[in-house]
Amino acid sequence: MKTGLYRLTIAEAGRLLAAKELSPVDLVEASLARIEAVDAKLHSFITVTAEAARSAARAAEAEIARGGRRGPLHGIPLGLKDVFATAGVRTTAHSRLLIDNVPDADADAVARLRRAGAILLGKHATHEFTYGGVAFDLPWPPARNPWNLEHDPGGSSSGSGAAVAAGLVAGALGTDTGGSVRNPAAHCGVVGLKPTFGRVSRRGVILNSYSLDQCGPLARTVEDCALLLQAIAGYDPDDPASADRPVPDYRALLAGDVRGLRVGLVRHFFEADLPASAEVRRAMEEAVGVIAGLGAELHEVTLPPLPEFAACKVAIQLPEIYAVHEEWLATRREAYGRSFLSRILPGAGARAVDYVRARQRRDELVRRTETAMAEVDLLVTPALVAPAARLEAAAGITNLNRVEITVPFSLTGQPAIAVPMGFSAGGLPLSMQIAGRAFDEAAVLRLAHAYERATPWHRMRPPPADSPEGAAAG
After folding, report:
1. Number of structural domains, the chain?
2. Across the strands, what pairs with 192?
3. Measured CA distances, 189 to 29, 167, 185, 203, 325 (Å)
4. Average pLDDT over residues 313-340
5. pLDDT (0 to 100) of residue 403
6. Is pLDDT at 397 greater than 80 in this prediction?
7. Structural domain contains residue 14
8. How far out from the chain centre does Cα 163 lie?
9. For the chain, what is the mean pLDDT?
10. 88, 163, 209, 369 - which has most CB atoms within 10 Å?
11. 23, 31, 95, 156: which one is catalytic?
């Protein structure tokens, strides 16, 4: 059994731990062995905290043995995108500028995971400062897609998505500005949830955009994402953007009936605004058919055009991240990677009037989206419009002014999830996006869970996942 422990979901491992049929020590050792076998090729980790994890596993084992189990995450090995501050463990944002940065305190989300008993295995690769894209001129190589090492795992929570898909960790945290949790989840064939803006504290997180960023979980199943969200959600008075709203029992609400749930299909996003590949369109039609078969009511919904969301997002994001880096750009520009510089330097020309107009435009897009959702409970689209590109092609993308189908729900602040919905002919994952009303993560998770249970995709693992030598290029 020990050789296959890395395949367990959080919920499966949690049940075994609760029944004392599994030791946290064995679970952590299985993950560390998996990292040792696979990550030299996958590059999903920047820092592995093996000894700290072993110590935490021994402490968890003793605590559970005494009847002190804290909950479903107690003894579960997890990873963190390397923008979450970790006390005594370097936090680099995948950048040369922070190669020796060791915080004194944990980010709020990290502290909540520790209180829940989770065991942190280390810090995952990302795009430089979550903005630089795929780059080969940084101190660490970019993460690779476990389904095919020649392909992009998505970003910017690239290492988190790759590590979860390949079984190196049971779950991970990422951050999402315009899709940076959902994109790697979609590219890597796992589940990724961006909660409502304000649902999870960003205190202690290296931010890309103050107005857009949200922290969220990546895991192999919707239930696992619900368990992770339960641990990290909640009001933080030390984060001015944190919302003081009650947090429901997400796992308990997964079992709710989806019959009669009104689901809006935003067809123009992927047929007219950003035409999807034929494979994605076919998979989306099949997914919508499954949802209808579950008893949900399907409606077609029209939102503002996708490029309007994208242009507004860039007009807000670029000056905000430039403001964070302005001093370093003046004094340490040579320390940045080329891709990051090519993307951020246009921010020097951003005008205050354009930023203010973008914020006003955002309010209008939020209002129009809310109006469009008056007759539906949820919205569905693909989470990506084509299978993962080759890594070298992704590295050649030097600007962020491109349209992405995940962007609208970051701009509006709504919760949105990416859930597997099949595979391309080349064996790369395809994914569906489900978005809901603000602070209604429960409905998003419920529909995603019902769809997941009705389909086989969440049970699929990258072909190399069962081989002892680990991932290999396909």
Report:
1. 1
2. 218, 418
3. 25, 12, 6, 29, 33
4. 97
5. 85
6. no
7. no
8. 12
9. 95
10. 163
11. 156
pLDDT by residue (tens digit) across 243-293?
999 999 999 999 988 999 999 999 999 999 999 999 999 999 999 999 999
* 367 three-class SS: helix
| Residues composing the chain | 474
Residues 181-198: what's their mean pLDDT? 98
Is 355 contained in some domain?
no
Other CB atoms within 10 A of residue 360 CB: 11
Contact criterion met (CB below 8 Å) for 409 and 436: no
Average pLDDT over residues 200-204: 98
Among 63, 2, 62, CA closest to 28? 2
Contacts of residue 351, Cβ cutoff 8 Å, sequence gap at least 6: none
Decide: 176 and 410 in contact? Cβ < 8 Å: yes
Q: Which long-range contacts (CB under 8 A, 24 or more apart) does 450-455 make?
A: 450/258, 450/294, 451/287, 451/290, 451/291, 451/294, 451/419, 451/421, 452/191, 452/221, 452/222, 452/419, 452/420, 454/290, 454/293, 454/294, 455/287, 455/290, 455/420, 455/421
Question: Catalytic: 342?
Answer: no
What is the structure's pLDDT at 472? 36
Structural domain includes residue 285: yes
3-state secondary structure of 106: coil
pLDDT of residue 3: 63
Residue 259's DSSP bridge partners are: none
Chain mean position to CA 149: 19
The letter for the amino acid at 14 is: G
CA dihedral for 209, 215, 220, 221, sign (positive or negative): negative
| H or E, element range at 124 | strand 119-124
The residue annotated as part of the active site, out of 23, 81, 95, 157, is 81
Q: Identify whether the C-beta of residue 216 lies closer than 8 Å to the C-beta of residue 193.
A: yes
pTM of the model: 0.96
Neighbour tally for 271: CB within 10 Å: 13
Taking only the tens place, the pLDDT of each residue in 44-84 is 999 999 999 999 999 999 999 999 999 999 999 999 999 99
Told to judge if 156 belongs to the known catalytic residues of this protein, a careful annotator would answer: yes
Q: What is the CATH number of the domain that holds 55?
A: 3.90.1300.10
List the domain range (segments joined by +) for residue 256. 34-60+76-304+366-466
63, 74 Cβ separation under 8 angstroms: yes
Q: Is the dihedral of CA 236, 241, 242, 244 positive or negative?
A: positive
- Catalytic, 180? Answer yes
pLDDT grade for 398, boundaries at 50, 70 and 90: low
Q: What residues contact residue 16 under an 8 Å CB cut-off, 6+ apart?
A: 8, 22
Residue tagged active-site, from 31, 157, 180, 211: 180
Contact 416, 194 (CB under 8 A): yes
CB 214 within 8 A of CB 200: yes
